[in-house]
Amino acid sequence: MNDGNTRVTHDTGDPTVADDAGDPTVTRHSGDPIATRHAGDPAATGRPLKTRLLRLTPLVLVLLALGIGIVPRLKAHAALRTQTESFSIPVVSVVHPKAAPAVQRIELPADVQAYQEASIFARTNGYLAHWYKDIGTQVPAGELLAYIETPEVDAQLEQARADENTAKVQYDIAKVTADRWVGLLKTNAVSREVAEQDVATMKAQAATLAATQANVHRLSKLQSYERVVAPFAGVVTARNVDVGALIDSGSAGGSKMELFHLAETDKLRVFVDVPQVYAQDMQPGVPATLTLPRRPDRPLHGAVARTSGAINSASRTLRVEVDVDNQDGAVLPGAYALVDLDVTASHPLLSVPVNTLLFRPNGVQVAVVDGTGKALLRTITLGRDFGTTVEVTSGLDVSERVISNPGDAIAPGDAVRVVENPPRVEKPSGAEKPSAAEKPSKSPSA
After folding, report:
1. How many CA atoms lie within 13 A of 313 on its CB side?
2. pLDDT computed for residue 270 by the predictor
3. Best CA proximity match to 234, nearest among 268, 262, 260, 259
4. Is the predicted pLDDT of residue 100 greater than 60, yes or no?
5. 8 A C-beta contact, residue 339 and residue 322
């Protein structure tokens, strides 16, 4: 009898009948020999559960393998997608433009010269009789440096004085004669013609006397040049003659020779070539500091005395003169020195770090971040250079956020993410710290 899902097996000789004992779909009757055989067997009761577990084991192993291999891969893909999205928006740090310093100190090489110097030549011909001052000697104004013997000039002067005496005697005679004939002319004792001739003769003798007196004065001055004296107080920097040397003043077309060279060193003229960009700020009175490489700790202070008033077309610089006191003689004329000029800007502008600049074909630009987190490019005009920062004369506002170290590929409209403190690259734990002498200076973006 077959009722519903109840399966009845009567063939007890079938070897598969024993395997149906654990099948829940097989119903055994009380008279069934198989049911009667397994009813008293305890092992036959747990055999169906064990069989089911053995059948499920492969499925569990497959699911476990899938879980171990796929889940981490899914997590890795999700992390990679998140990282890619974060890297697609570059992280930038920004700075705000600051007011440029009103006073800027610029350091320029300088040419140190004596306040005044002169090459001393002979004005008369002769032989050097004696020299009194050698190089390095401090002399006051009018000090005798050398004496020149001029025998020819002395003889010419004596002759001129004799000619002067002769001319004076002749003039006296002519004057007496003219006065006598003028007196007789009043009484009509002599003719007017004779009287006028005597008066003319007297005037000619007066002119001759004046000429001889001028010649005596000329030769006297020429003789006075036998004494070579210092035109101003200073130091003798050169002596080029010795006793007995022939002195030629060059009046006859010969070659002149410098006898001495004199320089005033208690005050110095320092000449500086200032770049054109600072020319408008160079006015008399601008403070200046003179520093020598061999004595950097002892600067000399002065001020701009005057400027050339024109830009040199070859170097595009303005010639500036700085007067510096040198009473102790610490600075020698001709020395190499550095001058620090304190330039004061009448209208200070904005300044940005140099690491914010982008040099593009259409000019210098900076990248700024707008309110929506997008990058924009601003074309700017540069002014003074402060080293780590530069002055911006136009193209930028003080409220804008300027990107530090922008990439060369940055373009207008690029999305960026602003951070206040960008991450720094940490040194390895085993790296040694540099000493104070080896420690590099901070960059403008640090």
Report:
1. 0
2. 92
3. 262
4. yes
5. yes
